[in-house]
Design brief:
two-stranded parallel ribbon, binds pyridoxal-5'-phosphate, 410 residues, 2 domains, alpha/beta
Length: 410
């Protein structure tokens, strides 16, 4: 039988202006082409320690236990939830978009007693609503999304840690879509476990999930580790002893691997670690505040440009993520035809949507390496031409002009 060996990988040069993945910073790609090291080679363990230290700055935390989970952002979510909760644990989850729904789905698989604070897609939860739910349901764990790319809204998290401590609740936050673009202020918020990904504002590829764990969450997780030949957990809940139901995602084991004990667990995904380390170095060289300001300028420019084209934005200005913007598809315009022309004629990808917003909004992202003035001006210029071709009347040139002025803070 003839063997088809296909062609070498040679992807088209697309500009990825959707909700992620985005184009990877060339320095990250270069770092990822370096050769392997043995996992206990002193150079490798040194790189691991450096990566932990770099991500403490990225997460704005002093948490000793700050490292990488090997896998996409969802791996980080699953590791956090399976390690924090067990069958019967009462968990309160904010569900205001696709990724809040993902949290509840994972918690249900674990067998948790899942309670949800359900909101319309695009809404955010108030501290008051969360406190009322704490009083009513007395959860052990609270979980929410910081920036839900499915709605492009950011959940405010100021005061959340204090509230959780008042009610003895452990907190988990998914910051996949905001880390590297908006302040993910772990110590300021006092949240317990936070996970992320690289493929959005960190300007890396999907496949590594940075995580940070507070001391009190680490204590809780270590208390669940099984003792006596793996038959029992030392954590007693409702009189039953349950161990962490995953080996790969058992954070007690993963924490030991990333500690000076270096207890072998998995083989660290060396290439992803090189990429994650470089992505963090780039971010810290730029400076957190400068980087957040760059993403804010990008968000401002996209909003102003889209409005000047006569488009309406989805969601509330007060809670907008700075790095991805939802735009209503105008009446009579075929959203998929626009995306197709953007890709085929301009090599630009913009995002579609999910669930109740599917076919109703586009999502334009400017994240990490792509949160730049020129990428936004190219995208809006292309969008103007495409909308015109699709029969939607726009004021020619207005989008780019407005975006430029907004980028410059005019
Ligand atoms: C907020 C949020 N959480 C989680 C994920 C899942 O990430 P991954 O596809 O890397 O597993 C995404 C991906 O879009 C996301 O936007």
């Amino acid at each position: 039988m003839a063997v088809d060996i296909y062609a070498q990988i040679n992807p088209p040069r697309r500009l990825l202006m959707g909700p992620g993945p985005v184009n990877v910073h060339p320095r990250v790609l270069r770092a990822m082409s370096a050769d392997m090291l043995g996992q206990f080679d002193p150079e490798m363990t040194q790189y691991m320690n450096e990566t932990m230290s770099l991500y403490r700055h990225v997460f704005m935390t002093g948490n000793q236990r700050t490292f990488l989970i090997d896998g996409t952002a969802r791996a980080g979510i699953e590791a956090a939830l399976v390690s924090l909760i067990e069958p019967g644990t009462r968990v309160l989850i904010v569900r205001a978009g696709r990724f809040g729904a993902l949290l509840s789905e994972i918690a249900e698989r674990i067998g948790a007693d899942v309670l949800t604070l359900d909101l319309e897609w695009g809404e955010v939860a108030t501290l008051e609503a969360i406190e009322n739910a704490f009083i009513e349901h007395r959860p052990r764990v609270f979980a929410c999304i910081h920036g839900d790319t499915s709605t492009t809204m950011a959940q405010p998290l100021e005061g959340i840690g204090e509230l959780c401590r008042k009610y003895d609740v452990l907190s988990y936050v998914d910051a996949t879509a905001t880390l590297g673009g908006m302040a993910v202020d772990i110590d300021g918020w006092s949240v317990d476990v936070v996970t992320a990904g690289l493929q959005k504002c960190m300007g890396g590829p999907p496949g590594s999930s940075p995580i940070t764990i507070s001391d009190r969450a680490a204590e809780h997780i270590f208390a669940r580790r099984h003792v006596e030949k793996g038959l029992r957990s030392s954590d007693e809940m409702d009189g039953t002893r349950v161990r962490i139901a995953s080996n790969y995602f058992d954070l007690a084991m993963v924490m030991d691997y990333w500690s000076e004990k270096r207890l072998n667990h998995h083989t660290e995904a060396t290439t992803m670690l090189y990429g994650a380390r470089e992505a963090a170095r780039i971010m810290l060289e730029e400076g957190l505040e400068t980087r957040f300001a760059r993403h804010r300028a990008a968000g401002r420019a996209i909003c102003a440009g889209a409005r000047a084209l006569g488009l309406e934005l989805f969601g509330q200005d007060a809670y907008r993520m700075t790095n991805v913007t939802g735009i209503w598809i105008p009446e009579g315009v075929n959203g998929e035809a626009v995306r197709h022309r953007m890709r085929e004629d301009f090599e630009i990808e913009i995002g579609t949507a999910f669930g109740p917003l599917a076919g109703r909004i586009w999502r334009i992202g400017a994240m990490g390496y792509n949160a730049e003035k020129h990428t936004i001006l190219h995208t809006l210029g292309a969008l103007e031409a495409v909308l015109t071709a699709e029969g939607f009347e726009v004021s020619r040139g207005a989008g780019v002009d407005a975006a430029l002025a907004a980028w410059n803070g005019v």
